Amino acid sequence: MTLSEIAAALQNALNRKPLDNSIKFDCGDDGAITLDGSTAYLDDRAADCTIRISEPNLAKLIQGKLNPMTAFAMGKIKVSGDMSVALKLSQLL
Q1: For residue range 36-66, what is the model confidence (pLDDT) as tens digits?
Q2: Can you list the alpha helix ranges (DSSP code H) found in 29-88?
Q3: How large is the C-alpha radius of gyration of the chain?
Q4: How far is residue 88's CA from residue 86's CA, in Å, rounded to a whole number?
Q5: Cα 11 from chain centroid?
Q6: Counting beta carbons within 10 angstroms of the beta carbon of residue 91, is it exposed (0 to 12), middle (13 to 18) or buried (19 or more)?
Q7: For the whole model, what pTM was predicted?
């Protein structure tokens, strides 16, 4: 999955259940996706919570092939900002 395909999948999820906060997936040199309310932006914006993850691991996370808690424990995901916002991702995914 490309970053734009991931953003489209996240937009579909936001259409069903918007977020109360903003979350940014920072994929380093590959780019960023920021979820804010009911919109997925394919760019780097300020957010309540930032999740640093590689693009391949983000694709696995979106597809349900990567457990977020296991990935966090293994260092594949790094969270900064409001951790409670990151926990809301389970309702989105």
Answers
A1: 999 999 999 999 999 999 999 999 999 989 9
A2: 55-62, 68-73, 83-87
A3: 12
A4: 5
A5: 11
A6: exposed
A7: 0.91
